[in-house]
Amino acid sequence: MITLTTIADVRASCDAARAAGGRVGFVPTMGFFHEGHRSLMRAARAADDFVVVSLFVNPTQFGPNEDLGAYPRDPDGDRAVTEAEGIDVLFTPAVDEMYPAGARTTVHVDGLTERLCGASRPGHFDGVTTIVAKLFSIVGPSRAYFGRKDAQQLAVIRRMATDLDLPVDVVGCPLVREVDGLALSSRNVYLDADARQAATILSGALYTASEAVVRGQRDAAAIRQLVVDTIGHAPQVRVDYVEVVDAATLEPIEQITSDTLVALAAFVGKARLIDNVTITFAAGDPTPDLGVLTASSGMQEADH
Ligand code: AMP
Hints:
six-stranded parallel β-sheet
C-alpha cells in the first residue's frame, strides 16, 4: 500500500491502474476506522482491481458549533487497518490540498438534503456532496462504497451521481452494529460507560418499530410515535428527530406500503448519533434491514 497526499499523485496512480486494465474501487472516509469502514474496504477489495481509500476530515461538512476540532483521529492505527485490508492507495490530503484559496464551487442536491439530518445540520450535505464530487473526479472510480449507516448521505450521493451523469456505480453496504445493536460510529468514542449503555435504546427502538411493521402496522405516524415512545425518557438521551420517509426520495409518507426508511438522530451524552432501518417490500411483505452484527468493534486495541 502507498500513502499519497497530493491530488496529482492519486490521479497518476489511478490512471496507471486503469491503463493496466484495472477497475478502480473507492471508499471515502473520515478515518478512525472501525468494522463498518472495514466492511466497505472488504467489499471494494473483493470486487475491484485497485482500491483507493480516502481519509479526510472534511471541514466543510461540520457546522460552526460541531465537533470538527474534537473529531477522533488515529492516523497510524488507520494506516495499519488499510494495510491489513489490502488497500492499494490511502489518500490523506491536507485541507489546503482539497480547498485551495479561491475555490468558489459547491455541489448542492436540492430537497433530499433539507430534512432529517439536513434540518439540524444546515450546509452539512453541501459539504458532503462537494467533497465526494471532488474525490470522484480525482480517483475516477468505477464503483464507490458507502454505508447504509448514513442512509440519507447514500440517497443524496446516488441522486448527485445520477443528476451529474457521473460514471460511477454507487454501492450501498450493510449497516454494521455492535452485538448489542449499537451502530458502529467513530463518534461512539465520545460515549462514557453510562451513555454507551443508554445508546442501545436507539437500535432497540428501531427493532421494536420493525417488529410492529412486520406484524401489520402501516401507519407511519404510529411507527414514528412508537420509536419516540420507546426511546422515551432514557437517561442522557434526547431525540433530535425521528422520521418515516420514502427510502429513495426521503419524502415523508403516511402509509408504509413501499420501500421505507425509518431514521433517527439523538444526542446521547456528548455524542450526536444516527441510526436507521430500511423496510423493503420486494415480495409484497415488509422486510426490515437492520444491518449486520459484528463480534468485534474492529477498533485498534489500546488507543480506542
Ligand atoms: P465516516 O468515516 O463516518 O465518514 O464514514 C465513512 C463511510 O463508512 C461512510 O460511507 C459511512 O456510511 C460508512 N460507515 C460508517 N459507520 C458504518 C457502519 N456502522 N456500518 C456501515 N458503514 C458505516
